[in-house]
Amino acid sequence: MMKNKFTTNRDTFVFNTPLEVGLRALMILNELSPSLIDLNRLVIYDYLVTHSSDVDTNVESLHPSIPNRSGEIIIKRKVMQEGIDLMYSRELVEIVYTKGGVSYRANDLSAYFIDYFDSIYAREIRNYSHWLNETFSHLSDKELEEYIDENIHKWGSEFTKESLVRGGFDRDE
Asked: Can you tell me whether residue 171 is helix, strand or coil?
């Protein structure tokens, strides 16, 4: 067996790390600037940016349509907070304390920092963040939560009966 000569002994994780999620959050916040957004809305916006076709079938999602992907909204809160904390530690976002709680917004450094990212993925995050802002910024937090509650069961559920079609779950095998 041929060994991969490009391995490392480090436990390196790339996907859904605080860095990745924090950078996406920074791009979303920058597009919404100077508006404030709380953590709940930011988690929802991150989901909608990466899985845009769940909202509009004419838009291609940045991330693949995997089964039960809507669970990301529930489990991503901690990593999003860590990502925001990382961006804050580098003075790339502002934390604003309001009567409604803790909110975040981009600052003057955010746009300059984001301009250094010129990959296709980074450009698409910015484009989808713009689309997101046009599509959802008019909704109140309550209206956005109602929209999510009404639709979350559809996102990823298209795979629910896939095993019945594909087979392979015969316990006698």
From this structure: coil
CA-CA distance, 7 to 9, in Å (whole number)? 7
Which of 75-79, 118-122, 135-139, 149-153 has the weakest average pLDDT? 149-153
DSSP designation for 6: T
Work out the pLDDT band at 173, boundaries 50, 70, 90: very low
Report domain extents, the chain.
18-166
- Residue 170, classed as helix, strand or coil, is coil
Segment (H or E) for 118: none
Q: What is the model's pTM? A: 0.78
Which CATH number applies to 18-166? 1.10.10
Query: Are the beta carbons of 27 and 15 closer than 8 angstroms?
Result: no
Where does 8-54 have alpha helices with state H? 18-32, 39-50
Residue type, 19: L
